[in-house]
Amino acid sequence: MKYYNHSKNAGSVFDVFKHATLLKAVERKQPDVYFETHCGFSSYSHPEIWEASWAKVHRIKPIEMILCDTNPEVGPTIPSYDTFTFYNENGFYQRLKHKADFTFIDPAYVEDSDWIDVAMLCDLIKNWVVWYPIFTTGQKLDIPASCIEMLWQTDHKMPGCGMAFSKEFGYEDLQFIYNCVPFMAWSLSAREWTLKEYR
Questions:
Q1: Cys bridge to 67: 3, 31, 39, 109, which one at CB 3.0-4.6 A?
Q2: Are 37 and 105 in contact (CB under 8 A)?
């Protein structure tokens, strides 16, 4: 199976979709403590164009952040703000040790276990948002959630991606987030976008 490789997709249409919907979700929920399971570097090769999702969130709402990543090189790129805490550990398990009123679950999806761990964490916590790749073959996200998905014209095995939202995101919350999608879909040349309510 071909997996999503984030280091090769930073700043791609998948990333832009993810960051835009995440920022709208944070704007809607106005959390006090933000937790990210797999935060990644604060910026990549072109920080003026691309920066991490948590860095964008902090720009619009400077709040307490708990960030995790298993890559030991990530830690030194995290700013040393009093409101930032970084753990060089797997965020799936670190999340269970901390209180947070908003959790962004964003693993690399390089192992089959990532999909299992996403489902496990979603079952144990509240107020979460999950980014996930959509493959033409292979693993799929299998959790009870409402989702916003976007697809592109592509020959690759990953034609799109989605964001899943926990039950704490009600109809009005989802509509607020989804309202930005048609404009984004046009600028990203998407071929299809949808809001699926699964409850």
A1: 39
A2: yes
What sign does the CA torsion over 187, 182, 126, 136 have? Answer: negative
Query: In degrees, to the nearest 5, what angle opens at C-alpha 61 toward C-alphas 59 and 65?
Result: 90
- The residue ranges of every structural domain in the chain are 6-196
DSSP string over 94-156: HGGGS--SEEEE-----SHHHHHHHHHHHHH-SSEEEEEEE-SSS----SS-EEEEEE---SS
Nearest alpha-carbon partner for 105 in 3, 4, 193, 18: 18
- pLDDT interval class at 154 (50, 70, 90): confident
Confidence of residue 20 (pLDDT cuts 50, 70, 90): very high
Specify the pTM: 0.90
97-125 as b/e, with b when 16 or more CB fall inside 10 Å? eeebbbbbbbbbbeeeebbebbeebbeeb
Question: What CATH code is assigned to 6-196?
Answer: 3.40.50.150
